[in-house]
């Protein structure tokens, strides 16, 4: 579903005299349908940078990223804005670590929005949003409120509900259980497994070893010191 070739990222800090900050160099990486790929590595190794590059939030310095979109491998690097919007609406879902929402929009609408953008009617989108919010233990009294003042864990669960409301062929998850208790982390593990069983290619960062072991089909080591030929390991992690 995703093919990454020779991906290199160097940040240039223009407000710091143009200092160059190399993050990773020459990454080759494949994410397959129905598999969960875990990005693994030390803090600062570039996991989030890689995930953001897959969503085209960051522009790579060199290399290419392609995603299977409408049945064809489509370049993300260098894609026109219109193509990127289409890819994000139909093919790639992204659950960032923190919820970013428009003020004064009710939680139920925040969660339902990705379905509404795909033309699903309000009633159906709200029903699906309510199911997910219930599953993730967000009390019903909060559904009509904007999530801006919710606790960190509540906001993260709203973000997860929003990410899982569409059956995206590719789902990118940036530490989706970081602020969650065990009960809610277990719900997220279930949601990931269900998505994977439907054929979604999941790519995620999970700091919690228990969660990681519960969902990983393969682990991709992101390591800024690595040699080019040891970039990819296809370690099967026991369920
Ligand atoms: N927008 C940016 N501008 C400049 N440097 C950045 C930017 N984003 C990330 N970096 C740098 O890139 C490096 C990798 O950061 P990244 O967040 O990808 O690491 P990570 O592996 O996800 O770390 P962690 O596990 O701590 O979240 C860091 O040194 C960071 O300072």
Please outline the major beta sheet.
5 strands, parallel
Strand order of the largest sheet: 6-7-8-3-9
Order of helices and strands: EEEHEEHEHHHEHEHE
Number of strands: 9
Give me the number of helical elements.
7
Regions with little confidence, pLDDT below 50 for 5+ residues: 226-239
| Helical residues, percent | 25-40%
Mean pLDDT, rounded to whole units? Answer: 91
Give a quick precis of the structure:
With 239 residues, the chain is α/β, with parallel strands linked by helices.
Could you please describe the fold and organization of this structure?
With 239 residues, the protein is an alpha/beta fold. The protein has seven helices and nine strands, in the order βββαββαβαααβαβαβ. Helix content is 33%, strand content 25%. β4 and β5 form a beta hairpin. The radius of gyration is 18 Å and the shape is globular. The C terminus is likely disordered. The structure holds adenosine-5'-triphosphate. Adenosine-5'-triphosphate binds next to β2 and α1. Keywords: ATP-binding, Lyase, Nucleotide-binding. Belongs to the ABC transporter superfamily.
């Amino acid at each position: 579903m995703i093919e990454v070739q020779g991906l290199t990222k160097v940040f240039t800090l223009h407000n710091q005299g143009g200092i160059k900050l190399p993050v990773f160099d020459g990454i080759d990486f494949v994410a397959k349908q129905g598999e969960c790929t875990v990005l693994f590595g030390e803090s600062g190794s570039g996991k989030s940078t890689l995930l953001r590059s897959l969503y085209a939030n960051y522009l790579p310095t060199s290399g290419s990223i392609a995603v299977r979109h409408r049945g064809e491998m489509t370049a993300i690097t260098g894609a026109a804005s219109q193509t990127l919007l289409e890819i994000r609406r139909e093919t790639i879902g992204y659950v960032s670590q923190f919820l970013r929402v428009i003020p004064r929009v009710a939680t139920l609408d925040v969660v339902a929005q990705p379905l509404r953008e795909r033309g699903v009617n309000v009633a159906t989108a709200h029903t699906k949003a309510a199911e997910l919010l219930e599953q993730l233990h967000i009390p019903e009294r909060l559904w009509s409120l904007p999530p801006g003042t919710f606790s960190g864990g509540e906001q993260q669960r709203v973000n997860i509900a929003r990410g899982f409301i569409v059956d995206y062929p590719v789902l990118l998850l940036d530490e989706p259980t970081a602020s969650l208790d065990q009960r809610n982390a277990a719900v997220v593990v279930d949601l990931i497994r269900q998505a994977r069983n439907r054929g979604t290619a999941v790519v995620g960062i999970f700091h919690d070893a228990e969660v990681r072991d519960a969902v990983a089909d393969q682990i991709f080591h992101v390591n800024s010191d690595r040699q080019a030929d040891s970039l990819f390991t296809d370690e099967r992690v026991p369920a």
